[in-house]
Design a protein that fits this description.
- By secondary structure, this protein is an all-beta fold.
- The protein is built from no helices and 11 strands.
- The strands form 2 sheets. Strands 2, 4, 5, 6, 9, 10 and 11 form a 7-stranded mixed beta sheet that branches. A 4-stranded antiparallel beta sheet has the order 1-3-8-7, with no helix packed on it.
- A hairpin with a 4-residue loop joins strand 7 and strand 8.
- The termini are far apart.
C-alpha cells in the first residue's frame, strides 16, 4: 500500500520560510518522479516543483522560481520543498505526488499517487 505523508505546513508571515517534507512508503521511491502541487482556495490545483527520478534537474513553476527548492533523499524515501520569501499568494494546501510516467511532471493527471496535503498559510 503506497502512502505519501506531507508535513511541515503551518502559519507564517510574509517573507518567512517553511520546509515541507513528504515521506513515501510502499513504492520504489528512486524510480518515481516526485512532485509538489498546490491548491489555493477557490482555485485549481497547480504544479509547483518537480524532481524527476532520473535526477536530470529540477523543475519549477515561474511563480516560485528562485524562492522554492525541491530536493529528495532516496535513502530516506523523502522529498522536500524548501520555501523562502513566502508571499500571501503562496497560501494553499500543498500536495506531494509520485508518478512513473515519462510524460510531463507538470501535469497532475500523470501522477499515480497523492498525499492528503498540508496547509500553508502566509499572512500579510
Amino acid at each position: 500500500q503506497v502512502q505519501l505523508v506531507e508535513s511541515g505546513g503551518g502559519l507564517v508571515q510574509a517573507g518567512g520560510s517553511l520546509r515541507l517534507s513528504c515521506a513515501a512508503s510502499g513504492l520504489t521511491f528512486s524510480r518515481y518522479n516526485m512532485v509538489w502541487f498546490r491548491q489555493a482556495p477557490g482555485k485549481e490545483r497547480e504544479f509547483v516543483a518537480g524532481s524527476p527520478w532520473s535526477g536530470s534537474g529540477t523543475y519549477y513553476a515561474d511563480s516560485v522560481k528562485g524562492r522554492f527548492t525541491i530536493s529528495r533523499e532516496n535513502a530516506k524515501n523523502t522529498v522536500y520543498l524548501q520555501m523562502i520569501s513566502l508571499k500571501p499568494e503562496d497560501t494553499a494546501v500543498y500536495y506531494c505526488a509520485a508518478g512513473l510516467s515519462s510524460r510531463s511532471i507538470r501535469v497532475d493527471r500523470y501522477m499515480d499517487y497523492w498525499g492528503k496535503g498540508t496547509l500553508v498559510t502566509v499572512s500579510s
